Amino acid sequence: MGVIDDGKFPPVLETERLILRPMELADAADIFKHAGDEETVRYMLWNRHTSIYDTIDFVNMELARYENKKSFDYAIVLKENVESDENGKNDKNRKNAENSVNVKNGQNGGRLIGTGGVFDASDLPHKAAIGYILNKDYWGRGFATEAMRAVVGFLTAELRVHRIEAYHTSENAASGRVMQKLGMKYEGMHIDSLYLRGRYFTTVHYALING
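Below the sequence we write its predicted structure tokens.
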């Protein structure tokens, strides 16, 4: 993992195949592709985005969170997509969606394939909670593990966070495997701990202790 220190927060992280950078309003169209997809969000503990405006609100919320440094999601970008966009090969559907809400291409380039990072860092440096979501077209290729390994590395090496937490719904075994690959240890299940979309969810909890 490489940390590109440009003085901004959160800093850009780089892995073999990915660049993790702060979100921009111009990312809304790409985020909506997975945040608005029923299959992709079926295990998420938040409601599906029903319009591009839900996604714009989400991005604006994340931009505000960058300011207080208490939580942050990264845009997860494939390096091959960064190169493609630099050559001007933008997706037509993305362009149409962006035009519909009057947003322009971001300065950082690249089309994102998901988001991930810290959704609760209110108790830094003692603990932080992480989460992630990928466009379903990129499932099963190790991208979630690669991205979150970079986030965990940043939290442990740079921010010296003592405890990193994560959880998933009991139906989402694939997310649990990501947590295991990150070196997180199983801590137990919370039966029917969350009520969302007309049903109860059982959550499975993992954690990593730094040091």
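The first helix runs from residue 28 to 35.
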